[in-house]
Design a protein that fits this description.
heterodimer, A: 147 residues, Rossmann fold, 5-stranded parallel β-sheet, 5 helices, B: 2 domains, 13% strand
């Protein structure tokens, strides 16, 4: 997949949720430069240009990472910790997008330096609207650092 | 009496008559003295006699007195003798009583000895109880901690169950809507109807999950008691529902409603459920008539919501407050059947009670009672 100025990195293991997310973003023209990965290990490989993404230009950083927490292999919190602890990647905005409303997850994420924490709405309509709002905010309104 | 004899003149020298006369005069004088003496003694004798008579009378009187005294003494003696008898009887009784007391004292000492033993047992038991209590308290602290942990587990279990259930539901609901949105031009009306059924049912399932979660949440919450203005609360609920149902003919009467002590949020939920039920089940009547009131009864404050709606069959009264139990099909009236179950749970937490009356086709009246505020 050609990585040209990636805008959104979506790390989501649930296929349906990923499909609904991508559709909601595409509907509002926010999903054109979106990469979807399905677990934490893949995400780290991608960001640091290692493993199956050996050779990818690390400088090509996403404008925002939408990160789920509950994922196989490497959990979202672990990915968050690694990203935020590395000088090269700590400036990338990370939005936790998860079904977990647990206070301890919220606190832990903020301790690790998450930029935003969003609980996935349960109803389809709300879900789509929230994804669209998030995409619009982080791509169009928020100013990420020029990498 | 002296008889004074004249001395006989015998051979007495005829003496000179002067000497004889002197002697006669002497004798007469002596006689006179003697006579005076006699008279005096006679007087004395009389006096003495008089005195003796008086003395005798005195004696007789004193004798009488003595006899009276004697008679009294006799009576007194009889009295004394009687009292002595009594005294002896009393003495005999006292002896018996003393024997009794002595016996009871022995008994008392036996009892006292037993009590001392019993006391020692009691003291031991007290110590044991104190130890047990300490043990119990530890156990209670342990159990409470366990319960709290279990509750927390249950809460996160419920939460994750509901979320894990909701995720695929979101997908079913969402993709079906997408299908309709993207492909409705290419579909037969029948196909679209089927898709709408899927959307509807998955939506309903989401509601069920929500309601179930809500129901279990109300079960775990603790009540925080404050003074609640029920009148204000009900008025606001009613005006909200009236706005939503502005196209309907609804006549609502709100009688004066007492303040009550209770958990504000929970009570609000109760009245929302009761009143929106009244609105819902009168949906098929031309003019809905709803009445909300309260009265006091035996330290309880009873609130009621009455409607002229579909009512229910008293035959199924037992099912009324069951979770997910409904007495009407969802075709007639939508709903999941948790509303009343939640009300019952909340009111039970307030130590109150719920009940209802209904007549099919005519209406129903739902009552809640809460302990009256002082």
């Amino acid at each position: 997949m050609p990585h040209t100025d990636i805008e959104i990195l979506l790390v989501e293991d649930n296929k349906s949720d990923a499909m609904l997310t991508i559709r909601a973003l595409k509907k509002h023209n926010l999903g054109n430069n979106l990469v979807h990965l399905i677990d934490g290990a893949q995400a780290l490989d991608f960001i640091f240009g290692k493993g199956e993404f050996e050779g990818r230009d690390m400088e090509n950083k996403p404008k925002v990472i939408f990160l789920d927490i509950k994922m196989p292999k490497v959990s979202g919190l672990e990915v968050l910790r690694i990203i935020k602890n590395d000088e090269r990647t700590k400036l990338i905005p990370v939005v936790m997008m998860t079904s977990s409303k647990q206070e301890k997850d919220i606190i832990e994420s903020h301790k690790l330096g998450v930029n935003s924490y969003v609980v996935k709405p349960v109803g389809f309509e709300n879900f789509s609207k929230t994804i669209a709002d998030l995409g619009f905010y982080w791509i169009a309104i928020n100013n990420s650092p020029e990498f | 009496m002296y008889i004074i004899k004249k001395r006989e003149l015998t051979s007495v020298p005829v003496e000179e008559p002067a000497l004889q006369q002197e002697e006669e005069e002497n004798q007469a004088a002596e006689l006179m003295i003697v006579n005076k003496e006699l008279a005096f003694q006679k007087e004395e004798k009389n006096k003495r006699t008089d005195e003796l008579i008086i003395a005798n009378r005195e004696l007789i009187f004193q004798n009488e007195e003595k006899e009276n005294r004697a008679a009294e003494l006799v009576i007194a003696n009889k009295e004394l003798a009687f009292q002595n008898e009594e005294k002896e009887k009393r003495a005999a009784e006292l002896i018996i009583a003393n024997k009794e007391l002595a016996f009871q004292n022995e008994e008392k000492e036996i009892r006292a000895a037993e009590l001392i033993v019993a006391n020692e047992h009691l003291k031991k038991a007290e110590c044991q109880i104190a130890e047990l209590n300490i043990g119990l308290e530890h156990k209670i602290i342990e159990r409470t901690a366990q319960l709290e942990a279990a509750n927390k587990e249950l809460e996160s279990f419920s939460y994750s169950v509901s979320h894990d259930l909701r995720a695929p539901l979101r997908a079913i609901n969402g993709f079906t809507q997408i299908l309709i949105e993207d492909y409705q031009d290419q579909m037969e009306p029948d196909a679209l109807e089927i898709l709408h059924e899927i959307v509807g049912n998955s939506g309903r399932m989401g509601e069920l999950i929500d309601n179930l979660l809500e129901f279990s949440r109300f079960g775990k919450q603790n009540v925080s008691m404050v003074n609640v203005n029920i009148m204000e609360m009900v008025e606001s609920i009613v005006s909200g529902l009236q706005k939503e149902n502005s196209d309907r003919q609804i006549s609502i009467t709100i009688h004066p409603l007492h303040h009550i002590t209770g958990d504000k949020n929970m009570l609000k939920q109760v009245f929302i459920n009761l009143i929106s039920n009244a609105f819902k089940y009168t949906g098929k009547k031309e003019e809905a008539v709803i009445e909300i009131g309260a009265y006091e009864n035996d330290k309880q404050c009873v609130y009621y919501v009455k409607d002229n709606g579909a009512g229910f069959d008293m035959k199924y009264y037992d099912k009324l407050y069951g979770v997910f139990q409904r007495l009407h099909s969802s075709n007639e009236f939508e709903g999941t059947g948790v509303g009343l179950a939640i009300i019952q749970r909340i009111i039970n937490k307030h130590s109150g009670s719920v009940w209802a009356e209904g007549v099919v086709g005519q209406g129903a009246c739902f009552y809640i009672s809460l302990p009256a505020s002082n």
